[in-house]
Design a protein that fits this description.
Blueprint: H1 2-10, E1 12-14, E2 20-22, H2 26-33, H3 35-55, H4 59-79, H5 86-98, H6 106-119, H7 124-136, H8 140-153, H9 158-171, H10 178-190, H11 195-207, H12 211-224, H13 230-248, H14 254-258
Antiparallel strand pairs: 1-2
Helix pairs in contact: 1-3, 1-4, 1-5, 3-4, 6-7, 7-8, 7-9, 8-9, 9-10, 10-11, 11-12, 11-13, 12-13
Length: about 260
Amino acid sequence: MEARSALRTVLWVDCARGCSFRLPPPDQFWKVAGPANMILLITGILATIGAAFLLGRDWVMRTVVAVVLGGCVAVYGWLGEPETVDQPLADRLAMLRKLDPRMMDNNQRLAMLQEIARQQPDDPQAHYFIGDIMLQSGRPEEAVQAFQSSLRRDPQYTPAMRGLADSLVRLDGGRVTPQTAQIYGEVLRADPENVQAAFMIGMGAWLDGEHDLARRVWAEAGARMPEGSAAREELAMLTAQLQAAMANVGKATPDDEDTPEPE
């Protein structure tokens, strides 16, 4: 079981990029596999090559045999024995948790989260974190799908609402559509101190030319926040910065307008 578990980790199935095999980071490779398990892995590879030469009559047939046998070894190592259905997943997750989180890349985190989501199908959190990774990786379409999966499990899960709205803003090129503003509104109703939701609702109105509406939205949101709270101060700072920045957009300096062209 230990050898099969190491094989599953060494031959990492990258489900986030189309089920391809890849190796863990070099500095984690030997820690994950171990010398004994590496000997078993190398022996399996050599046995596969030997079988390919024995069974194949030409290079094409040998390649086919090698691919088929190698795939069988990898799939068996990934699934484990039928009578130990739960153990392979537990072993692999335990091995992943032993890795330094700072050394794990997004694909490794995604693989672990996808397994947790399969193990706990009613929990919205794994799908939320998958969406968060997708959004940070510049994949907003997939982020939307993950956040929607989270909300199907818990329609009131505020972090997934906010993530969905952020993803839609990214997809719309920074524009806050009425649909997205409505989602931010749900976030703000569930969490009145959510600065981002309050700011984005007002920003959507501001960018559409509804400056008075934007100011009213920000003022009402700020009034619902506790007086002197960090959230209230942050919202006031963000709105002031946005209005100052917008006031300077397209404003030409006097020198640029009045200075004549040199002869």
